[in-house]
Amino acid sequence: MNKHRIATLTIMSLFASVLLAAEVQRVGPLAATNTMLAPRQPDPAGLTWLTDLQKAQARAKAEEKSVLLFFHGSDWCPTCAEMQRQVFDSAAFVQYARKTLVLMDVDFPEKHQQNEELRKANLTLKARFNLSQESGEGFPTLVLLNAAGETVFQETGYAGGGPAEVLSKLQRHAGTGASTADSSFKNLSVDEFARMADDKRNAILDVRTPKEFQAGHIPGAVNLDVSAADFQAKAASLDKGKTYLVECASGVRSARACETLSGLGFPSLYNLPGGFRAWMKAGKPVEK
């Protein structure tokens, strides 16, 4: 009798476990504990988000698309969750992404366990694209790669502007890369940037803070803090006839500076996507 009751309870327990596992798989591993910060998979918009960059780039090349990497923290970053809901789940983004993008999910959860191999791969991507190595910093970040694997756009943060805020930037760079005719500036590799910096007719504009600049900068660079209140006024006084090589710490602020300079009528602008960190990593000269 006791053996029969034990066997029955064991079977019921196993059955309940199967039902619970099925429910967790259906709603996603974090949805039950934190609806607002639920993970991206499965995507309610029906988009496919890959987690292997090599596969994403191979697909992008075959389909002649760009790769969009989304660096985020699925279970702790409210701004990331807001970007997901307002932008990635919107009809406008879904329509655009299906035609032009291969999507790449780069998640850094803190409260829930992540596959160790995936965790290491994501950390490698974080270092590759010069995101802050401090826990909790640098999110959300979008990185756009063209079909050749070159970074054509990178930006950290989200101001809450919905799909219009993000799509206008992606549309400017996706597909044809940074050399498209209607782009306001062109992204360069470190070596390309260095070659143009050797030409003394070109001006190097470092848009980091004065403190960052004083700690070390590219030889010959001029400091003009893009975050300062008077940046636009000072920039307007620069010679529009020159070519400007613009850089910051990681390429985010410099891209923003290029947008501002382009709006002021500067026709020849070049950005360093990896910024000063990429410059140092490549072993290029630095002065203080």
Give a verbal description of the structure.
The chain has helices spanning 2-27, 53-63, 78-88, 91-100, 116-128, 162-173, 190-198, 210-215, 231-236, 252-263, 275-281, and strands at residues 49-50, 66-72, 101-107, 141-145, 151-156, 186-187, 203-206, 222-223, 244-247, 269-271. By secondary structure, the chain is of the alpha/beta class. It has a 5-stranded mixed sheet with strand order 1-3-2-4-5, sandwiched between helices. A hairpin with a 5-residue loop joins β4 (141-145) and β5. It is globular. 35% of the residues are buried. Mean pLDDT is 82; it is low at 14-42 and 175-182.
Tags for this entry?
Oxidized Rhodanese, domain 1, 288 residues, 5-stranded parallel sheet, 15% strand, 11 helices, 3 domains, Glutaredoxin
Briefly summarize what is shown.
This protein has helices at 2-27, 53-63, 78-88, 91-100, 116-128, 162-173, 190-198, 210-215, 231-236, 252-263, 275-281; strands at residues 49-50, 66-72, 101-107, 141-145, 151-156, 186-187, 203-206, 222-223, 244-247, 269-271. With 288 residues, the protein is α/β, with parallel strands linked by helices.
Topology:
Layout: H1 2-27, E1 49-50, H2 53-63, E2 66-72, H3 78-88, H4 91-100, E3 101-107, H5 116-128, E4 141-145, E5 151-156, H6 162-173, E6 186-187, H7 190-198, E7 203-206, H8 210-215, E8 222-223, H9 231-236, E9 244-247, H10 252-263, E10 269-271, H11 275-281
Parallel strand pairs: 1-3, 2-3, 6-10, 7-8, 7-9, 9-10
Antiparallel strand pairs: 2-4, 4-5
Helix pairs in contact: 3-6
